[in-house]
Amino acid sequence: MAGTHKYKALLLDLDDTLIKSNKLYDKTLLHVTRYITKKFGLDDKTFFNNVMDKEMIIQRSFPTVHTRHSRILVFRMALDEVLKVYDYSILPEVEDMYWEYFISHIELYDNVISTLKKLKELGVKIAIVSDGSLGLRIKKVKSAGLQPYIDQVFASEEVIFEKPFGALFTLALSKLEVEAKHTIMLGNNYKNDIRGAQLVGIRAGMFDPPEDGNPMGQDSQIRVIPDFVINDFSEILNEMGYEK
Ligand SMILES: [Mg+2]
């Protein structure tokens, strides 16, 4: 428990652990679909729902690899369904628009910066372990103002498979030169963040804030038990054996 052991490294999930992503993804999708519907004279609501469906299909078609986060495939599939012919150069254009909008509207949870600052001053190594492409993760970190506190960013793209596969966690441990038993993981996904980290021997906790939280990934058949649950980001200090 807290206080008995001072951990040397903190691994963090990014979306819905440091940054409030859940609602922003919907807002971003709405922004981009409105641009598309205006351009092609389509109905806003119908096309938005169409895009949501296609997002689900892409997510499920590429389980555990970063392609499942591709937005260009979603927009192509949605547009292909409603238009026979269109200028396909819009596809990378709206993909860029999507990420630019998302990145420029990022909000952090309360006490993220102050807590990371303290941990950094205490000499704790801090890294992001996140599913998706490396470039986009680094852009999110930079835009959120997290870069001064984050030593490294590791993306599933680097190891092919997403969490809960152990490769992303072991890559982080090896690059940070820390052992699993001296490391703590914090995330918002039971299966990917908690079980994934626990499988390689890392103590793993759930971030479940009262507002804008997004705990997910709990399976009805196999229940994942987190080693700890925190409701405010600053509580990670205690979990790591340091004074709050
Ligand atoms: Mg997450």
UniProtKB/TrEMBL annotation:
Protein name: HAD-superfamily hydrolase, subfamily IA, variant 1
Taxonomic source organism: candidate division WS6 bacterium GW2011_GWF2_39_15
Record GO biological process: small molecule metabolic process
MF terms in GO: metal ion binding; phosphatase activity
Pfam families: HAD_2
Keywords recorded for this protein, A-Z: Hydrolase, Magnesium, Metal-binding
Swiss-Prot/TrEMBL cofactor(s): Mg(2+)
Cited SUPFAM superfamilies: HAD-like
